[in-house]
User: What shape does this take?
Amino acid sequence: MLQSKKIGQPVYFMKLLTSLSRKSPYLFFALLVLASVIVLLLNCTQIWSFTIDDAFITFRYSKNVVMGIGPTFNGTGLHAEGYTSFLWMLVMTLPHFLNFGVESFAKLAGILATLGTMACMGLFLWQAGSPDWRGYRIVAAGLVIFILGLLPETAVHAVSGMETASYTLLLTLLVTLIFLAVKGKNWAVNWTPPIALLTGLMRPEANLVAVIMLMVVVLSVSQKKKFLLRVGLFYILPGALYFIWRWSYFGVFFPLPFYLKSGVLGLVGQETVLPFLAFLMANVGLYVGIGLFGERKAVLILLLAALPNIFFFLFSKPIMNYDFRFLYPLLPVGLILAGIGLATLMGKAETWVIDLRWKWVAPVCIALFSILMFLGQNMSRASAVFGPLQEYARGMSQDHHVIGKVLNQIPHTNTSPVLAVTDAGAIPYFSGWNTVDCWGLNDPNIALGRVQPVDYTFNQNPEVLVLSSTDLNAFHNDSVLGQSLYKRAIDRGMQVVVRVPSFYGDSIWVLTQPGGAAAEKLSAAFAGQMQLSSP
Assistant: This one.
């Protein structure tokens, strides 16, 4: 009897799962979503200290707006558009206005945006596919939301301080609204133009997708004139007014990062696109392939959202592409397509079982197999992804933040003294000093090639110059610009007052004019860890 009971335990377990799945797909969905949210929040706590330096560039613009200076990097000189997300810059004015910690605000906003993205994925899959397979679609939605929440990259982009998570939400919301509009939901039709506008304001390249999406709705709705009027009022008109304002304010066609980060002509973005596609296919490639044969309207909309972005980044080469930052917003689109494939596969698998009492066994096995395969591929990846970012966060807090806060203690105005940096994020933000961004990301003169960067930098008579070196004991920078800046600074009598380890084997070198307040305060701040030998 004991042996018979032991043999029957797996059968009993399978019957329990089968009954649960047949009667309560909503419960299965809820458990998967709950697990996804819990893991996401736990992952976020592990890397809460991580804020990418570029986020502080946007924060500085937001702070300047609240201070009445305007959306520009410095209070004097030419207006500079060093951010690429106008909407995120505006959102980040809120914590400055409310005197709430900007980093915490950005991270909380990123987490909420990620949860919103999960909701959009669930809504899309709720409406996609055969009504006979609604239970399978609900389970599939839970599975792909589970995948999104468990990926370590999701937590990274939720807390990085950048607009990535918010753009992901808006893009997924736009795709979902377009799908619902095509299926005849009038409320979705009405909301597509303003959401398209917000998506384009969050990332400029999103306007390509937004225009294509709006054209899809135009072709599908019966009241075309009425919809075109809404597009004109809520997308074209405000978009045109924004462009006219930024042209008159900044005087350039694109934000400055486009001139510096887009690379050269040709397929220069293969290193950005191909690893992302390989990553997506390794996790859900089988289900994406099956999903391509799902509901035609859904598949077409998902492809029209993904392919223009992939095409755009094939011909550009942005820097700081950590953890697929630039293509990560397409991940929910790919997962929705995988969800369609999963629902289709589970629906078809039901027919493989002859005994109708066991028809849910095959779908349940597919769901469990999907979970186990994903966990096997990704559970061990979290430490590998988070480790370098935690090191980065420690380095940023121990040097960039400290340097900026020490400089802020020295009396300064919008014009003087002058700080020159090659990392133009946290140090300029915390210092509040008039800053020369030597790479030109926040300076149109350098970005547009109007001046020679080294001559231009030292014509501003910087009191402090902050550089990075790959060697702690002797200055070495992989770029010609970094080497030239250091040499010119030494030739002009500037002295190294801080030389400390940072992250990824690099070190931070701070040079100042001798005898000034900056030299004294910085030397005192880093006295315990600074290398005292001469470089």
